[in-house]
Amino acid sequence: MYAAATIVKPLPPELFRSHGASAEMRWDAMAGQGYHTPTDRFFVRNHTFTPAIDAATWQLAIHGDGVRCPTAYTYDQLRAMPARTLDVAIECAGNGRRFYGSQQGEPAPGTQWGLGAIGVARWRGVPLRYLLEQAGVRAAALDVLPRGLDAPFEHYGHVRRPLPVGKAMDDVLVAYEMNGRPLPPDHGFPVRLVVPGWAGIASIKWLGDIEAATRELFTPWNTEFYPEITVNPIKSALELGWNAAIPLGRPQLLRGRSWSGRGRIVKVEVSFDGGRRWRTAEHHGRHLVSAWLPWHIGWVPRQLGEQVILARATDETGATQPPKTPQHPFGYHFDAVVRHPLRVVHG
Ligand SMILES: Nc1nc2c(c(=O)[nH]1)N[C@H]1C(S)=C(S)[C@@H](COP(=O)(O)O)O[C@H]1N2
Ligand SMILES: [Mo]
């Protein structure tokens, strides 16, 4: 393994905002795109750097006292197994962290993500349930620990975070394809986990082995870095740049997307007057629980100058985006309504 740069793919400034070893998608880069986030603009969150892994010699080991027959599979063996295809969002738990500071006046430490630490891709791979069953998973198995092959993070060792066996046996994918192509290096080649609805850290990239244990497992990633973090909250974003210029008096069709790790989005409302009045946005087409809901709303800007747009979604559990998110020590799970600034200019 070697590293030329922390991220392999090009990061043109019109598609990404750089955060050192990680890169955030700019939301104006989703404008005019289809349901999925094209791979060239999908955000990257690396603890160290993207490794180069040779699929010809790579193996995935399934082991631990939670399985009766520990096994290892090659890339070709995995690709020959029963496969599933799922449209799933991967979102960093820190998505929106910047707004703790910029909107609520209490900055949270860590990567200052805007709303671009999310992407939806079509993932194809083997259900983790199938692999665990093949390995003879025991009824007493409690936790499953996927481990990445990227370089150790500081003195903490390889990136690894336990998953309860209930989630592992439910809808988790051991994915080798993203948007119809083999996974690219930055997104976990040859194989990554895809854990629907959960914080991005659960979706371990560059999988090397999976341990199944009959006891609870602990790593710095479920004790120190992401304690108590599982399902992602509800959020919305406009497919517009920050401070985008919009022409006065011309009818606009504003587009956005909303998502929630807890379930379907049932309503999206938009306010053009700072939150006094809300209009319901329209949506059509696909409405997938583990991905996002695209929506749109018409608007004719009638006043020159700076203006703020608010979008607020509600999911099927009744959860809605609050005006303010309670402060979180790590700046995770910012779910408040984001005040998106733009400028109305002479058209
Ligand atoms: N092995 C490994 N897996 C990892 C990471 C990592 O640094 N190393 N980052 C995690 C985090 S914090 C997130 S948000 C997602 C990001 O996935 P992406 O880079 O494909 O967008 O991968 C997760 N899986
Ligand atoms: Mo993350």
Helical proportion, percent range? under 10%
Read across the widest sheet, the strand sequence of neighbours is 4-3-12-7-8
User: Count of DSSP helices?
Assistant: 5
The CATH H-level homologous superfamily of the largest domain: Oxidoreductase, molybdopterin-binding domain
Shape: elongated
> Using DSSP, what is the number of strands?
20
Q: Could you say what the CATH topology of the largest domain is called?
A: Sulfite Oxidase, Chain A, domain 2
As residue ranges, the low-confidence spans are: none
N-to-C order of helices and strands = EEEEHEHEHEEHEEEEHEEEEEEEE
Q: N- to C-terminal separation? A: 53 Å
Hetero groups in this structure are: the ligand Nc1nc2c(c(=O)[nH]1)N[C@H]1C(S)=C(S)[C@@H](COP(=O)(O)O)O[C@H]1N2, molybdenum atom
**Average pLDDT value?**
96
- Count the domains: 2
CATH architecture annotation name of the largest domain: Alpha-Beta Complex
Give the helix/strand class.
mainly beta
Work out the strand percent.
25-35%
Sheet with the most strands?
5 strands, mixed
Radius of gyration: 21 Å
Query: Class of the largest domain, according to the CATH hierarchy?
Result: Alpha Beta
